[in-house]
Design brief:
- It is a single chain.
- By secondary structure, this protein is an alpha+beta fold.
- The protein folds into 2 domains: 139 residues, no CATH class; 118 residues, Immunoglobulin-like.
- The chain contains 6 helices and 13 strands.
- The strands form 4 sheets. Strands 2, 4, 5, 6, 9 and 10 form a 6-stranded antiparallel β-sheet that branches. The protein has a 3-stranded antiparallel β-sheet with strand order 3-7-8, with no helix packed on it. A two-stranded antiparallel sheet has the order 1-11.
- Helix 2 crosses helix 6.
- The chain is elongated and about 80 Å long.
- The two termini are 33 Å apart.
- The relative contact order is 0.17.
Length: 272
């Protein structure tokens, strides 16, 4: 899992490197166009294109039938039923392509969230670091420490929450950059990256050992086996400001990738 995550992260780092100092919409637009083109190409390879063309032609024919014989209620009702049946078959024919497309699109969205979904800490800004343990443990008897690197300061003693198996600290960024914090629990010592200042950071809010968490937070390696389940840094969500409009990156990605896909379908000779 780690090798796949690191390979994908490295690929997106390379792809988006030319856009690091541009407005976020530039990198989003480039990835969205490539994603739209890939979606259309995959859809064309996976689905029965001949069947889809036939069903779309039937739907258009029945709609035309409804308009021509609009004064004959019996004919219109039958045509409506044929339209519904053809549309259902068309949807069924499209499902395999949509399911196959879903996997790479989700992976792309996960990578974009790490780059456009979080606001790095500003100098002087504080955040909460949460350490979650795997098993219910008497936390009041455990010595959990947080050792920050240069550029971070731990502001509070640990707050222990036995019900959720969590220990929390508040840390403050005093210098910009990508910093490290070390969580020390007995003989266990794990590192977590904290991004402060530069807007070009690839942000990982969570480093974990669970399979699902590793899929949705691929930037850092998974935690080694031990008592710690995850280490999380709370970042503020980030919106994109463009032409006086403020919106989440997901809106731009969906609109641009769909527009690119529909624009390129004739180039690939694909019916959707």
């Amino acid at each position: 899992m780690d090798y796949v995550n690191l390979a994908l992260t490295g690929f997106f780092d390379l792809l988006l490197y030319p856009f690091r100092w541009m407005h976020p919409i530039g990198g989003l637009a480039a990835v969205s166009v490539l994603t739209g083109a890939a979606m259309v190409w995959i859809f064309g390879k996976v689905t029965n294109q001949r069947r889809i063309r036939e069903l779309k032609t039937r739907i258009k024919a029945h709609l035309l039938e409804m308009w021509i014989f609009r004064d004959h209620m019996a004919v219109v009702v039958k045509a409506q039923g044929r339209v519904v049946w053809a549309a259902a078959r068309y949807a069924a024919s499209s499902v395999p392509g949509l399911l196959v497309i879903l996997v790479p699109v989700v992976l792309v969205m996960i990578q974009l969230q790490s780059r456009y979904g979080y606001e790095p800490l500003r100098t002087g800004q504080s955040s909460i670091v949460k350490i979650r343990l795997k098993e219910p443990t008497p936390l009041d008897r455990m010595n959990v420490e947080l050792e920050p690197s240069h550029g971070l300061v731990v502001e509070t003693p640990p707050l222990r929450i036995p019900e959720s198996r969590e220990v929390s600290f508040r840390v403050k960024a005093v210098e910009p950059g990508e910093h490290e914090i070390a969580v020390v629990l007995g003989d266990e010592r794990v590192q977590k990256t904290v991004c402060a200042g530069p807007p070009t950071c690839t942000i990982s809010s969570l480093r974990a050992s669970g399979v699902v968490d590793r899929i949705f937070h691929p930037v850092e390696r998974s935690l080694p086996s031990g008592p710690i389940e995850s280490v999380e840094v709370e970042y503020r969500s980030k919106d994109i400001l463009w032409w006086g409009m403020e919106f989440h990156w997901l809106w731009a990605f969906c609109i641009l990738s769909l527009a690119a896909g529909f624009s390129l379908k004739r180039f690939f000779g694909v019916e959707v």
